[in-house]
Each structure stands twice: as structure tokens, then as C-alpha cells.
Input
Amino acid sequence: MEPQKRRTGACVWRGKGASRRPRALALSLAACAILVSLTSCDTAQNFLDRDDVCHDQRAALRSYGDYFAQDILVGGVIGAAVGTVVGVATHQSAGTTAGLAAGGLAIGAGVGYWAAIQQKNSDMASRRRQVTDDIHAENQKIDGAQAAFNKLLDCRRQEAARLRADVRAGRVSQTDGGKQMADIRSRYEDDVALGKRIGTNIATHSADLEFANEQFKPQPYVARRGTAIHASMDEKSAKLESLGAGAQVNGAAVNASWVKVSLGRGRTGYVLASDLDLEAETVARNKSRRHSSPPPSANGDPVAEGVFTNLSKRADFDDSVQTASSNTSGFELSGS
Output
């Protein structure tokens, strides 16, 4: 888990009389716990970071981590009020999302995001504007996170190169150099772990936006394997039709388990989400296609085009984290 950075000075014991207000004290402690869990680093980590030559670059990346650790509609306001953080998704998985959420989009908080959009905007046109604005903001944030991640890794490798030069010149002994290089390598690995956590949270935001996109207009899905189209969201319900592997069908996610699909003559049915891949996702997985043009189904639709761009940027970020994770060369005293 990413060490926490936010100061917790407001979470203090108030001395005599506190025991006479157990409910207020409990609420205060609960509020403190939430604030601490949502922020990026504790006082101890601040102390350790003072000696990190890449402190500024690390702090810049953390700021994006703070943003993506929150619900989209919360924005970037960390701990402004406990009430604003109810329902915030703070995924701490260390695994990358290079596979773009195996088994299809992890809907996660998407239902909640769309419900909030509906509550804030009474008509479909205003909902579209809201989601379009959110997509634009998200894509800018992913660009910022990518740039910050690149700068941090570049700083770390430059730090290693300077240390090698100092050892070769005799300014640092081999013994001390070895210890310092081990520390740099450890920091690099922690930088990559931070990138992985950010990628996981970007995936949650992307799922929120895609869920909203599908509520405006069902999107093309591709069957991962032969599967049945059910009459209701129950595997025991009647089977209306079957889909062969690779078959395409328009659908809209209902929840994390089911996609409502469109059939001929105005009929609808339900397919297990684990049996489908969103077409836009499959295109975004392909490095040679993700930046060429959006799928035909998205052309001319600002929301769908924006979501495809979001998925592509997310895939780029995941790829860069995966590359950094597998490329740990350059952190040896004998390296070039």
C-alpha cells in the first residue's frame, strides 16, 4: 500500500472531558481514519523523502494518485469533508491493469457514477455535457500522470548514473556505492508500485465513463466464447438465442455481472459480462490500432470517441508501467 502522506494533526486527543463525549470521539476517530486512508503519505514518509533527490517528481506523481483514488465526481478535493468521501473507491491492488480488466470492464462504481450524473442533471443533454466534460478532464489527468511517471523514472535512472560516475571517480567507495545503489533500486521499485496502483484506479474511472457511455447508447460487444442470451439476469432463465465466439452484439452493462443486449425486432436479452469483451477495449489493447482511429461505432459521437481515447491512454499508461516493472537494468554499479 502506498505510504500515507497527509498530516493528521487534526486527529488529536482533546484531554479531559473527552470520555464524556464517546459518540463525538468515535465519530472524530472514524473521520480521521477515513482521511488518513485517502491521503498519500504519512509524516514518517515525509521525513524519509527529504533525502530523496527525486522528491519533487515523486510528489508530482502522488498528486495524480490522489486524484485517481477518488470517485470522479469528487474531483481532486482530498479530505475537505468526511461527507464528500463516502463511497470513494480506493483500490490498493499492486497488479497492473495491462490486461484492461480481464473478463470485461470491471463496472465497479460505474452504477454509482451514472446515478450521480442522473441526480445532478435532469435531462439527457445536460448529462451528456457532464460526462463529456468528465471524460476531457480524465484524459488530461492521464496525460499528466503519464508525464509525471516518465519524469520520475528518468530522475531515478539519472541518479543511478551519477552514483556510478562517483564510484568510478573514487568519490564514493565500492562498499558505500553498493549500499546507495540498493537504496536507489528499492526506490525505483516503489515508484513502479505506485504507478501500478494509479493504473488500477485509472481503470475504475474508465469503467465509470464507459458505463455512462453505454447508458446513452448500447455499444458493440464481442463474444469471447460461445454463450447464451438469457431472458433475464439469471443463468437458469430461458435461453433466447446463442452467440458464437467472435460474434458481435450491441449491449449496455447493467452491473458487474450482466450486459443487456439488443436483439432483432426490438427484443432484448442478457449475457454474462464474463463472456463478452467491449469492442472498444479490444481495439485499445492493440498498440498499432489504439491511436489510429476510434471504432466505427464511436465515430461522430463525442462521448464514445472520448471514452475510446480514455481507454487508449489508459492502455499506454499500463504498458509503460509494465515495461518499467520488467526493465530493472541500469541499477548496478557496473552498468553503463
Remarks:
- Confidence is low (pLDDT under 50) at residues 1-44, 75-109.
- Residues 284 and 311 are 6 Å apart (CA to CA).
- The longest strand covers residues 248-253.
